[in-house]
């Protein structure tokens, strides 16, 4: 993303869905004038504690508390795949930018691992709330680009990045017990017997796939850069 935007100069940047501020502080260290925006109060608290120099404000898509064209660049890193209205949210990113919008989304997330574990455990997969057809988009680089163009960004360029995350199995399991994402939601709703089956399937998959104490997980993501016109 930094390479796509070039040197910051005196430009301002809004990090939408900034979480604990990790990327916001990286943008700041690279020379950008950064404002962080995060709807979750606990995340804002962590960001302010760890990165007191970064302004972290309350705000959620698709209604951000900023004027039209308030920032030179607006970044939303793995945000549009979480919101209830991705198209309206993409249009909101365009509204508050007077220059460029950078957004990322999964084209292949770790959900494939949990789907395999669920199947091996003989359990029904977790089915979350699906987006209405008018809001949804294909989780491919072309599908992501098309959705952003529909939101008014033009031109849009998209690159797909692939990498392997060498995850520690014990931390993956902590995320399940903590209720994180679809796997955590599934586990939270299971009875004791089904939880044991899920854990046994997890241990089996880890034993089959682990390499040197870590679990190599393939990931793919689309990174889009669009002009706010």
Describe the protein's architecture and organization.
Helix 5 (111-120) packs across helix 9. The protein has helices at residues 2-5, 22-29, 41-50, 86-96, 111-120, 141-150, 169-177, 181-188, 192-209; strands at 12-16, 33-37, 55-57, 71-76, 97-108, 153-167, 215-228. The two termini are 20 Å apart. Strands 3-2-1-4-5-7-6 form a 7-stranded mixed β-sheet, sandwiched between helices. Helices cover 38% and strands 26% of the residues. The chain has 229 residues and is of the alpha/beta class.
Number of helices: 9
Biggest sheet strand line-up: 3-2-1-4-5-7-6
Summed over residues and divided by their number, the pLDDT gives a mean of: 94
Percent strand: 25-35%
Q: How would you describe this structure in keywords?
A:
229 residues; alpha/beta; 7-stranded mixed beta sheet; 38% helix; globular
Give a summary of the structure in a few sentences.
The protein has about 230 residues and is α/β, with parallel strands linked by helices. It has 9 helices and 7 strands, in the order H-E-H-E-H-E-E-H-E-H-H-E-H-H-H-E.
Helix/strand layout:
Layout: H1 2-5, E1 12-16, H2 22-29, E2 33-37, H3 41-50, E3 55-57, E4 71-76, H4 86-96, E5 97-108, H5 111-120, H6 141-150, E6 153-167, H7 169-177, H8 181-188, H9 192-209, E7 215-228
Parallel strand pairs: 1-2, 1-4, 2-3, 4-5
Antiparallel strand pairs: 5-7, 6-7
Helix pairs in contact: 5-9
């Amino acid at each position: 993303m930094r390479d796509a935007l070039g040197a910051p100069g005196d430009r301002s940047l809004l990090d939408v869905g900034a979480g604990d501020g990790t990327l916001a502080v990286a943008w700041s260290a690279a020379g950008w004038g950064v404002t962080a925006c995060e709807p979750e109060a606990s995340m804002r608290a962590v960001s302010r504690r760890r990165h007191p120099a970064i302004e972290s404000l309350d705000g959620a898509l698709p209604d951000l508390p900023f004027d039209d064209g308030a920032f030179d660049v607006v970044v939303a890193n793995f945000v549009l795949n979480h919101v209830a209205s991705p198209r309206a949210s993409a249009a909101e990113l365009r509204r508050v930018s007077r220059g460029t919008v950078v957004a990322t989304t999964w084209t292949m997330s770790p959900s494939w691992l949990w789907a395999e574990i669920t199947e091996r455990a003989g359990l029904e997969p977790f089915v979350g709330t699906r987006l209405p057809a008018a809001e949804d988009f294909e989780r491919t680089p072309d599908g992501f680009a098309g959705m952003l163009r529909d939101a008014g960004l033009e031109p849009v360029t998209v690159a797909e990045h692939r990498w392997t995350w060498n995850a520690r199995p014990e931390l993956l399991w902590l995320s399940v017990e903590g209720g994180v994402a679809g796997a955590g939601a599934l586990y939270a709703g299971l009875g004791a017997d089904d939880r044991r089956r899920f854990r046994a399937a997890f241990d089996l998959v880890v034993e089959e796939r682990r390499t040197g104490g870590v679990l190599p997980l393939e990931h793919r993501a689309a990174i889009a850069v669009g002009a706010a016109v």
